[in-house]
Amino acid sequence: MAKAAAVHFSCAECGYSTGRWLGRCPGCGSFGTLAEESLPAANGSAQPKALLRLAEVEVDEAKRISTGVPELDRVLGGGLVPASLVLVGGEPGVGKSTLLLNALGEISRDRRALLVTGEESVAQVKLRAARLGGCDGIEILAETELDAVCATLEREQPAVCVIDSVQTLWSQEIGSAPGSVSQVREAAARLLRVSKESGVATFLVGHVTKDGSVAGPRVLEHLVDCVLQFEGDRYHAHRILRAVKNRFGSTNELGVFEMTGAGLIGVPDPSEIFGKTHGGEIGAAVTCTLEGTRPLLLEIQALVAPTDLAMPRRVGTGVDPKRLAMIVAVLSRHAGLPLGTADVFVNVAGGVRIDEPGADLGIGLAIASAAKGVPVREGLAAFGEIGLTGRLRPATQADRRVEECRKFGCETVLGPGSETLRQALQAALADFAN
Ligand SMILES: Nc1ncnc2c1ncn2[C@@H]1O[C@H](COP(=O)(O)OP(=O)(O)OP(=O)(O)O)[C@@H](O)[C@H]1O
Ligand SMILES: [Mg+2]
User: Which numbered ligand comes closest to the C-alpha of 101?
Assistant: First the structure.
């Protein structure tokens, strides 16, 4: 007797799959996100294939394609690798379409560049292109049917293609709605095959959910060659592009853009914008972080306010909350700051998010300055990891950080020479007596 087709449910948020329907996904805890899916039929007629030795493999040195947007090139590790698949994730309205339209415009000057738009009509894209300028050479296809998109790519073979967005593509073979995990996974897998076989470097635009992961298809991150995250506050003009995964370059590489009426403009020297403090301001400190290969000066602001709450608040924007709680605890215990009855708020300039521990000392300094009511000495920058014992650990690549601090006029750089947090605070704050 033929085996009945297996019934299969998968979660639209995290991709968890199970054999029976459940109200709550055991993978991510969301309610009502499991939907039935049909699995593609397996075909059992596979033939063994011939093997090759690596020495016999011939490659023509893959030359990277410059996107014409220097900040994007930097994040990609020096340009776009031909036939690669790049996922660009970001919140709605952060500027994904704008950035990629800018890049396509530049690429179309000497290569074929195709935009597949499923979200906006051709007329809407035209309006944006007119605002940005320099986009006349881009070819455009308004299509959401996966088969049609793949067939077009195979026939036209453009050098670079942008799919805006992968969530709008749908295939008839898969029963579920566009944007569901199985549709997105199928779309990415098919586009991966087409891009490798036809040599089309493909950007996939993907939306991200509230918690910052690319909506639904976590699985996508494994399929693609690079995952770029486009972040930034919609209410600020500055946007940050980060490589979360990169098969052809370093991760955590950072690109900084400013959103203007004429599109996204690259910011070659972000330290100059984010690392500025106003002399004599209480609760502000400058730190130097290292994102990928790029040292970056950042202003950190802190506010320490008395509170009646039994559990004082520690609120950080752009800082990891656990890290912040730890720094506050070390400051109380090892530097004698009375933070137990105070709310502590910390903010990083320009909507930048700090991921590395090298910025600890800068955060600690801003909090200590706010708590003591004493400004940090002028022209001082600090970096270093704060240990639980109150001792400072050296940050990686200290020389490059010091160099960046000096370049932007910080005469005193705290961190590499200091042994303990207390010593550093004494050096940075005018009357940090105890
Ligand atoms: N005339 C303008 N001047 C300045 N900024 C503009 C102008 N028009 C649009 N923008 C900016 O562009 C942003 C939208 O960019 P874009 O459409 O590229 O975002 P997106 O990430 O593709 O969004 P979605 O996820 O909705 O597709 C807006 O948030 C706005 O800040
Ligand atoms: Mg868009």
Answer: 1
* HEC readout, 259-280: EECCEEEECCCHHHHHCCCCCC
Segment 124-147, tens digit of pLDDT: 999 999 999 888 999 999 999 999
The Cα 407–Cα 189 span in angstroms is: 46
Angle in degrees, 0-180, between the axes of helices 360-372 and 421-428, rounded to the nearest 10: 60
Q: Nearest-CA neighbor of 376 among 271, 278, 273, 274?
A: 278
CB 387 within 8 A of CB 275: no
Taking CA atoms, 82 is separated from 87, 99, 412, in Å, by: 14, 19, 45
Supply 399's token pair: 């020389």
Dist. CA 381–CA 274, nearest whole Å? 13
The reply to whether ligand 1 has any atom less than 6 angstroms from the CB of 350 is: no
- pLDDT in the model for residue 400: 87
Ligand 1 proximity of 261 Cβ (cutoff 6 Å): yes
DSSP single-letter state for residue 64: P
Q: Report how far residue 374's alpha carbon sits from residue 377's, in angstroms, rounded to the nearest whole number.
A: 9
What is d(CA 371, CA 304) in angstroms, rounded to the nearest whole number?
A: 6
Low-confidence ranges of the chain (pLDDT < 50): 1-4, 217
End-to-end Cα, the chain, rounded Å: 84
> Mind listing the pLDDT tens digit for each residue in 209-254?
655 555 554 668 888 999 998 887 767 788 889 888 899 888 778 8
Ligand 1 and 235: CB distance under 6 A: no
Cβ–ligand 1 contact at 98 (below 6 Å): yes
Burial label for 301, CB within 10 Å (0-12, 13-18, 19+), is: buried
Residue 208 CA to residue 217 CA, distance in Å, equals 10
pTM above 0.85, yes or no: no
Beta strands at 294-306 and 314-317: parallel, antiparallel or unpaired? unpaired
Q: What separation in Å is there between the alpha carbon of 90 and the centre of ligand 1?
A: 12
At 389, the amino acid letter reads T
pLDDT number for residue 418: 74
8 A C-beta contact, residue 274 and residue 314? no
pLDDT at 2: 45
How far is Cα 238 from Cα 247, in angstroms, rounded to an integer? 27
Q: What letter does residue 202 receive in the DSSP assignment?
A: E
